[in-house]
């Protein structure tokens, strides 16, 4: 018999929060969106989050848990997919766990690279950061301030955040994404601290803040600003949040993933070239930060590879299309608890 897939319950979300306390993977907070199912190990000390789209069973990221638990869960998820006659897919996995995917017969494809800033080395001193320093000082002289609102106080500002989010979507002519990218939902946002930029008590920009349970990593998901916000407001928010994380001894700030580019100039096999071109063509769906290359130029991050692991080479175009469909669903992908 096929294993039963149940809608996530409040007790599941509690288990997820417990697992995340021991995880340094900030993106694992996407488990709280409510658009994914969970496969836990027997001891409930780790999980895989996933969603099916036609025949593709797509897990987001590496399993969450300690090293042995992650390996065990890759095996369990492969068997789970086989029992449903589905394609086994892991989307956005890290290089550290690649042997686990090879061990269960999955093929690996490089998706892109994640931009990471090491906070112990981050500083606004030096000629290269002169323009950022000037922009930050200009906003502060105009009366703009930065703060991180703690989780317990976030419900008070949710109506204002909703207005800003709606203005941002209107300005960008953008629809909400989902699955591997957060969407605005009060239930989701109130689970995190929120970084805000204010002037005279009015919020002009915000980002929900992901904090790794081990204090290794800090990142953001939604980054939105209002229609009356000044130029450079998101740069200012980023800079201040990095300094905030540095003061609190976080090791790294994760800027998210950028697509592969320039594949035609690399000594890669034809299949890799076709794969890369396919992945790049879905860039609108797969990648969150519009200005990631701009931040690369400004902050000089370290780039870390991210991969797709899949058990069916010939089905790769279909798998990529299914992932893009999942992401484009946005809030329509929410799983009903009924």
TrEMBL record:
Which lineage ranks, top first, belong to the organism behind this chain? Bacteria, Deltaproteobacteria, SAR324 cluster
Q: Which GO terms describe its molecular function?
A: phosphatidylglycerol alanyltransferase activity
GO biological process, alphabetically ordered: phospholipid homeostasis
Residue intervals passing through the bilayer: none
Q: Which domain of life is it from?
A: Bacteria
Q: Where is the signal peptide?
A: none
Q: Does Transmembrane helix appear among the keywords? A: yes
* Localization per record: Cell membrane
Query: How is this protein annotated for GO cellular component?
Result: plasma membrane
Show the InterPro entries listed in the entry.
Acyl_CoA_acyltransferase, LPG_synthase_C, PG_lysyltransferase
Record membrane topology: Multi-pass membrane protein
**Keywords, in A-Z order:** Cell membrane, Membrane, Transmembrane, Transmembrane helix
| Residue ranges annotated for the Phosphatidylglycerol lysyltransferase C-terminal domain, each copy included | 22-309
Instruction: Output this protein's name.
Output: Bifunctional lysylphosphatidylglycerol flippase/synthetase MprF
One Pfam short name: LPG_synthase_C
Is Transmembrane one of the keywords? yes
């Amino acid at each position: 018999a096929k294993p039963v897939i149940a809608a996530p319950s409040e007790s599941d979300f509690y288990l997820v929060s417990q697992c995340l306390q021991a995880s340094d993977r900030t993106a694992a907070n996407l488990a709280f969106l409510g658009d994914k199912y969970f496969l836990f190990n027997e001891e409930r000390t780790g999980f895989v989050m996933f969603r099916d789209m036609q025949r593709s069973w797509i897990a987001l990221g590496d399993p969450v848990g300690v090293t042995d638990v992650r390996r065990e869960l890759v095996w369990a998820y492969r068997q789970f997919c086989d029992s449903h006659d589905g394609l086994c897919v892991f989307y956005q996995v890290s290089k550290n766990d690649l042997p686990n995917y090879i061990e269960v017969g999955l093929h690996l494809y490089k998706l892109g690279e994640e931009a990471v800033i090491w906070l112990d080395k981050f500083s606004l001193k030096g000629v290269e950061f002169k323009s950022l320093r000037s922009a930050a000082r200009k906003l502060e002289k105009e009366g703009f301030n930065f703060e991180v609102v703690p989780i317990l106080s976030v419900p008070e500002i949710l109506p204002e955040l909703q207005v800003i989010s709606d203005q941002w979507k209107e300005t960008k002519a953008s629809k909400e994404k989902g699955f591997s990218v957060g969407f605005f939902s009060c239930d989701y946002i109130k689970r995190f601290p929120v970084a805000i930029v204010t002037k005279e008590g009015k919020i002009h920009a915000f980002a929900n803040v992901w904090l790794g349970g081990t204090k290794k990593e800090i990142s953001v998901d939604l980054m939105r600003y209002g229609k009356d916000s000044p130029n450079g407001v998101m740069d200012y928010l980023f800079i201040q949040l990095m300094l905030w994380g540095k003061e609190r001894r976080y090791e790294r700030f994760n800027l998210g993933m950028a697509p592969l580019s320039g594949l035609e100039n690399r000594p890669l096999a034809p299949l890799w070239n076709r794969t890369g071109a396919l992945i790049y063509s879905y860039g609108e769906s797969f990648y969150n930060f519009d200005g990631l290359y701009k931040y690369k130029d400004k902050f000089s991050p370290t780039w870390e590879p991210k991969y797709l692991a899949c058990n069916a080479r010939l089905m790769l175009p279909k798998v990529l299309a299914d992932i893009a469909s999942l992401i484009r669903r946005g809030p329509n992908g929410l799983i009903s608890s009924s």
